[in-house]
Fold this sequence. Notes:
It comes from Edaphochlamys debaryana. The chain is α/β, with parallel strands linked by helices and 205 residues long.
Amino acid sequence: xxxxxxxxxxxxxxxxxxxxxxxxxxxxxxxxxxxxxxxxxxxxxxxxxxxxxxxxxxxxxxxxxxxxxxxxxxxxxxxxxxxxxxxxxxxxxxxxxxxxxxxxxxxxxxxxxxxxxxxxxxxxxxxxxxxxxxxxxxxxxxxxxxxxxxxxxxxxxxxxxxxxxxxxxxxxxxxxxxxxxxxxxxxxxxxxxxxxxxxxxxxxx
Length: 205
């Protein structure tokens, strides 16, 4: 099992202004993170992409993660958070976007205990279920997991697992909601204005 960074290493790492970007599959998170990263020089990291990259590297740690997935098990939150910590440690930027995390309460609590500080904001990409399903179906490239039943389950799983996470962050006034059932340009314009207001002065490439 890949090890998470040690507590000593965590304490020595500079604190970042972290923005969690959450939303159902097909809500547009990746597209908008790409645009904000391009326009404001803000790095963004996806837990899923970090895991896939580690597996693709063929290193021993990646092979262990692949075995976990093949056995139908869930990768421990400690490992996911550790990968995000390593990615954040590799940038000098004060502000970072984290796409698709946390996915559930366990992710959130492990982040708090392992990283030692919370996010600055949670950006919730709010998109109707049917729109997300249409977008995901439109991406269908013959993959087995792109059928309607599986897509609907993915959307419902996201909503059920995220509900307590969003309740927690709403209780401390950290959730900002963006409607994403609109053209990409409209969402990007609103998100850019929000970013300038809250983060642009602190964001450094």
